[in-house]
Amino acid sequence: xxxxxxxxxxxxxxxxxxxxxxxxxxxxxxxxxxxxxxxxxxxxxxxxxxxxxxxxxxxxxxxxxxxxxxxxxxxxxxxxxxxxxxxxxxxxxxxxxxxxxxxxxxxxxxxxxxxxxxxxxxxxxxxxxxxxxxxxxxxxxxxxxxxxxxxxxxxxxxxxxxxxxxxxxxxxxxxxxxxxxxxxxxxxxxxxxxxxxxxxxxxxxxxxxxxxxxxxxxxxxxxxxxxxxxxxxxxxxxxxxxxxxxxxxxxxxxxxxxxxxxxxxxxxxxxxxxxxxxxxxxxxxxxxxxxxxxxxxxxxxxxxxxxxxxxxxxxxxxxxxxxxxxxxxxxxxxxxxxxxxxxxxxxxxxxxxxxxxxxxxxxxxxxxxxxxxxxxxxxxxxxxxxxxxxxxxxxxxxxxxxxxxxxxxxxxxxxxxxxxxxxxxxxxxxxxxxxxxxxxxxxxxxxxxx
Length: 450
Ligand code: S3P
Hints:
Blueprint: E1 10-13, E2 20-23, H1 29-41, E3 43-49, H2 55-66, E4 70-75, E5 78-84, E6 96-97, H3 102-113, E7 119-122, H4 133-141, E8 145-147, E9 156-159, E10 168-170, H5 176-186, E11 192-196, H6 204-211, E12 217-219, E13 222-226, E14 236-237, H7 242-254, E15 259-266, H8 273-280, E16 284-293, E17 296-304, H9 325-334, E18 338-341, H10 354-364, E19 368-372, E20 375-379, E21 392-395, H11 400-408, E22 417-420, H12 432-439, E23 443-446
Parallel strand pairs: 2-15, 3-14, 6-7, 10-11, 21-22
Antiparallel strand pairs: 1-22, 1-23, 3-5, 4-5, 7-9, 8-9, 11-13, 12-13, 15-17, 16-17, 18-20, 19-20
Helix pairs in contact: 1-2, 1-6, 3-5, 4-5, 7-9, 9-10, 9-11
The protein binds shikimate-3-phosphate.
Shikimate-3-phosphate (S3P) binds next to helix 5.
């Protein structure tokens, strides 16, 4: 967990209000990372639009420049990549600093294990505390040579020049990052690399590999690739990030008299758990104008305020909404009755321990939120209308999604809320405060770095 040594800038929120309007949210973070990675490995020129200009995806972009790829942009979401081919990466001059980004580290760990040169991956305090054994262990059984700290964390020193062999690996945790890292290593392995997940997770890597002409096999819950193929450059239009849209979805549900449309949001079924969970809670959400953009389903999401009720969240939905629980906990606090989440221990290994940190924040705001080993029990508001939360000062612990979730809580608070340590909002959602203000959230920023 980020210890929050530097408090960064603060969101100050006036209580109440409603959300209105029709707008877009920034590009999907997961797809933006993969666009840089696969565009770099492809033969030919890849043009990306809708790229997320957030710190995490930019860390990936800078890393590929350091690996010898010529990349223009980003500017207004546009990036142009001169692919170097699967064998064209060059040794970086120094360590690759991946900041706060777990996706960059776990996917690059797989990809760089198959190169002919050494590399070192580092990150900030939060990333350096996150478990990397889940990716380095299966990579090692493929023949990779990776040195981590004794705790199994970054920095990671990857010795290149190893001959990788394909494996069949059943993942103990449902993780798209691990699955993707292994598939990327599989591009460089002898034979076939197969991965099985305990539950479906986001499949952007598989879809994009196929979009770049690389065959991906699927069989009875297993996904596989064969090493030695090539990727053909392809243009990518990155849809809006449903994980960023989620803050507004919940905000519009809980704030009376709200009505919003979020346009052009990625609604890949491996990402839409948040819509299903909110619908089970009684939300008024409708997907219109469904279409497919570059192999990814996209829609406009219409949301109106509604009376939410507490539910027991089905465990099978957990990996499909894994990044949305901070804001779903806020929805639960505003719902009538109890909400019970189980089977979500993974939340403890995100940018912060999201179970502990959200329980702390909600309790500070007067909510009965009881953390459990693998989830949370939240006693919803006793009243349907009006304020269900108190005001107060809460800490994000350097976690972008905690900061934005607690900001949305102000829509149903009695007094103002101050959210400390909001710098990392820029990792996934640059411009969040401005967009939220335009939509009706009473947010001001102080001590902003940008
Ligand atoms: C991501 C996968 C998820 C998610 C993260 C992005 C990805 O992590 O939490 O924000 O882009 O593959 P895990 O796969 O570790 O659950």
